[in-house]
Amino acid sequence: MFGAFRPTQPSMVGLLWKTPWKLSRTRKANVRSRLKQVDSVIEAVKESGVQCAALTKALELPKEHEMPPKDKYTVFSRHVRGYRKGIHKVPKWTRMTLRTNPKGF
Amino acid sequence: MLPLASLRSCASSSARAQLRAFASAAPPSSTSAAESEPLTHFRITLRRSAISLPKNIKGTLVALGLHRRLQTVYHRHTPDIAGKILTVKELVSVANVPASAVRNKLEQRLERKAPRGYVVTGSKLHAEP
């Protein structure tokens, strides 16, 4: 019943990792703080007065406070019913830019 | 002071204290010194590692001179540096600083270091009979 050899799903069937289908309140708070951190980087580069194509592209991204919750915590996926999946299903999602949706979604 | 201190021969204790003040309180001092000194440099600190990220992002960090987390480098305000920062914007934190706040690796280490030796503030031997 208990102990290291208890018959659980991961021990019985081999490779079985479960990912929660949605983010917890804490993980969502961490998402928001990361988004704000990136916003501050873009803001610092903007305040430096430098002009470059990368900056105009970065300024087109929505800021954290402009994004709807749907875009903060989910991403577009063409394979999922409803075309949205949790953003935490994307590999390396904490270090990628995933702010915008394809046109029409 | 010991002869080792001749490395920074001009660094008398007051100048050292000023340096420390710059290092510890750079954001407030940059706002107060903004009128006198123009902000000319980016201070870039690597916050997140680029492990298992694409080669172009890892290469960008190398180009910025960042090779370990929490390392800080200074670069002039130029479009190429701005583009590199924006390529790795999820991994770094950036501030604009004046030219006087720029520190190389050795200076950063000296600022981190505790001061050598000790100061005698008083003695109880001859305090009072």
From TrEMBL, chain A:
Keyword Cytoplasm: no
BP GO annotations: mitochondrial translation
UniProt KW Ribosomal protein keyword: yes
Compartments it resides in: Mitochondrion
Keywords: Mitochondrion, Ribonucleoprotein, Ribosomal protein
Broad class of where this protein is predominantly found: mitochondrion
One cellular component (GO) term of this entry: mitochondrial large ribosomal subunit
A single GO molecular function term of this UniProt record: structural constituent of ribosome
Pfam families: L31
InterPro entries: Ribosomal_mL60
Quaternary organization: Component of the mitochondrial large ribosomal subunit.
Stated name of the protein: Large ribosomal subunit protein mL60
Organism annotation: Trametes coccinea (strain BRFM310)
From TrEMBL, chain B:
Gene Ontology CC terms: large ribosomal subunit; mitochondrion
Family: Belongs to the universal ribosomal protein uL30 family.
Domain of life: Eukaryota
Top-level taxonomy: Eukaryota, Fungi, Dikarya, Basidiomycota, Agaricomycotina
Coiled coil spans: none
Keyword Membrane belongs to the record: no
Organism listed in the record: Trametes coccinea (strain BRFM310) (Pycnoporus coccineus)
GO molecular function: structural constituent of ribosome
Keywords: Ribonucleoprotein, Ribosomal protein
Name of the featured protein: Large ribosomal subunit protein uL30m
InterPro entries: Ribo_uL30_ferredoxin-like_sf (IPR036919), Ribosomal_uL30_bac-type (IPR005996), Ribosomal_uL30_ferredoxin-like (IPR016082)
Gene Ontology BP terms: translation
Domain Large ribosomal subunit protein uL30-like ferredoxin-like fold: 42-92
